[in-house]
Amino acid sequence: MLLHVNPASGVPTYLQIETQVKHYIAAGALTPGDALPSVRQLASDLRISTNTVARAYQDLERDGILRTIPGGRTYVAENPGSYLKAERVRRLRPYARQIAVEGTQLRLDPREIMQLVQQELDALEEDNERYGNLDRKAR
Amino acid sequence: MYVWKCWRDSRSRFIFFVIVISAVCVLFTIYAATPGGRTGFFRVGPASDVAYLWSWVATTLLQALTTIIALFAGLVLAPSSVGQEYQQQTLGFLFTRPRSRKYLNWTCWSVGACEILGLIATSVLGTFATLVCVSRYIYSWLLLAAILPLFVGAVAVYSMTYFLTVYARSSEKGLSYGVGILVISCFLPLAQPQLNHVLSHVWYGHVLHLASFLSLMWTGCGWIIAPAGAFPIGALIFYALLALAFPMLAQLVLERREV
Amino acid sequence: MSDMAIWTEKLVKTYPDVRAVDGLNLNVPRGVVYGFVGRNGAGKSSTIRILLGLARATEGHGTVLGFPIGREQVSILERTAYVSESKTLYGNLTPRELVRFTRGFYPRWSDQAVRKYSQLLEIPMDRPFSKLSQGNRTKVCLLLALSQAADLLILDEPATGLDPVVLDEFLRILVQDVVSEGKTVFISSHQLSDVEQIADWVGLIDHGRLLLEARLDDIKSQFRWVTVAGNDLPQTSLPEAMLVASEGNFHKYLVKKDADEFAAQLSRQGATIAEVSPMSLREIFLALVRKEERCTSGNVGEIAAAVSSSL
Question: Which chains neighbour A (Cβ–Cβ under 8 Å, 3 or more pairs)?
Fold first, then answer.
């Protein structure tokens, strides 16, 4: 798994890692059961502190996206969304609020904001299909 | 490990002095072994008079020449490792090793003191060998005891210069101050008769006499070569204490100093 | 405090003409990479010298790895590796001899580490130290520090003279062999980009005291530039906001936390929020340390007070 972080950006490094992992999963580049590099390996490759990587992995695990077997590797969780629908909606709400606030501050009207979100969802689906095709070809 | 480093720093100077002392002994042997009357600065009787020969060689070589060389060695060896630390600004490295400054101070000093001992032993043994070569006869084993007054005197000079180097934070300054004090101290006894006259207290004279580093080595060797009167035990103890006091002072300075 | 790698309380160091350290309260947790940043003369080197016993604190006390500074200095030095800013070692010795000299002090010394790192860092082991370039000298110092198997590494400007390749390699070694073993790394550096990359915590020192000490992640997720447009300067009572620049209608604030709330407050007062953007470590550093306009709303937050008192 090739990640990339930019330490100089204003976004904390651990968040960058979390976002990328989630993106890879959403796009289908990482599928349930795939192994992730160890904390040490990833930290060493990216030249960042192991604590940062550990935090990202811990957060993702707490969110149910990753799973670590005791004393072993970390894997993409089988059912990344094994929560009740209500719980999942509750988890997404802060992000939705953020989009609403930011969009309003930027003086975009609700329709434009919804369009944006739809565009992103479509792009994800395209990626998903593309990786899915590659996957099938590889097998 | 620090012992190794101190040795390495002063190694070349030590070897230099060993060579000088050995060379002086060898040259002297050659000179003394030349048959015929000797004239010039050192007058001596017929070569067959063993006692006379012994006295002459020992006095000249041991008491005069090697004493002075040993004093120089004391001066020169002292700045070598301590001064280098200051010059190269490596004290920040050295003092962040897990050893107390007390340990580092005494280790550095001890290496030099051992080297002085080595040089003194070389000079005394060299003189002894010269005498044996020249007279083909061992007159007195007591000569070897000359190591004691010579060593104590030389170490006192060494300790003084060592402390001065630490205090002045510089090899050159330490050496210069040491030379200065040594030279002055050598000439102090000259004032003894005058001061005795003025002060009319005998013990002032003794103090002045003591203040000369050479006095111990000179009279100590002199006594060993031709025992007469009392061995200068007072001076011996005084200089031995001095030799230990200076590194103690250096330790206090180093412990309080900031780098 | 003994579970901290480094802890100081009200540390003060005065020299005849200057107060180099002025009430410093350091808290460096174990097992992290702590970036100690500040301007020249801010007190970084003085602090490090006190921690290592090279200088004595005028007031205050502290511990390193649980041992009190000064009283048990040798115990600290047994477990601490130090790379000084000047990187001077004995000029007449070669790196190989320097290794030989240094290893005798440390029972946990690793010869294997010496072999490995001397190769990875490309160190000429048999050239006298005085004849080495600045970069090579730094590498030798780093080699000695890494091979010591210390619990704490104190590195003062570890990147001096290192080319990008070697620096990258060194960072990798640091992460893989030091940080992942749970050791603590305390880096004092001007190279904010390196600090930003590898540090977990950041301590920003200025005029002898800490302006900021927090996890880098937290700093980055909370510090924001808030740029607004408004006719009269909006009033705000948030202590963590500081006006940094003004140009005509536009005003730029540095907000230490709750930036969204601050922006909302301003927009309620009629200002237009132009942008709320994140800040790099360099921007945070410059903004906190540089003397800028004080926040005219009369905030008495520590930062604003420090700025105004220095005007």
Answer: C
pLDDT digits (tens, 9 = 90+) for C1-37: 678 999 999 999 999 989 999 999 999 999 999 999 9
DSSP B64: I
The token pair that represents A40 in the structure block: 């040490």
Nearest to C52 by CA among C153, C133, C146: C153
Residues in chain C, total? 311
On whether ipTM exceeds 0.95, the answer is no
CA distance C234 to C167: 46
CA distance C36 to C202: 6
C226 at interface of A, judged by CB pairs closer than 8 A: no
Cα C172 from chain centre: 19
Pull the structure tokens for residue C85: 């800013």
Look at residues C154, C282, C146, C196 and name the one whose alpha carbon lies nearest to residue A46: C196
d(CA B159, CA B243) in angstroms, rounded, equals 5
Cβ atoms A15, C217 nearer than 8 A: yes
HEC assignment per residue over B64-88: HHHHHHHHHHHHHHHHHHHHHHHHH
Distance, CA of A134 to CA of B81 (rounded, Å): 70
> Treating both helix axes as pointing N-terminal to C-terminal, what angle do B101-135 and B67-88 enclose, rounded to 10 degrees?
150
Tokens of C73: 């200095």
Give tens-digit pLDDT for C185-243: 999 998 899 999 999 999 999 999 999 999 999 999 899 988 888 776 655 656 778 77
Interchain pair C175, A49: CB under 8 A = yes
Q: Cα(C311)–Cα(C304) distance, rounded to whole angstroms?
A: 11
CA neighbor of C215 nearest in space, from C163, C281, C270: C281
Chains A and B touch (3+ CB pairs under 8 A): no
As beta bridge partners, residue C9 has C61
Are the Cβ atoms of B1 and C55 closer than 8 angstroms?
no
Nearest to A12 by CA among C273, C11, C196: C196
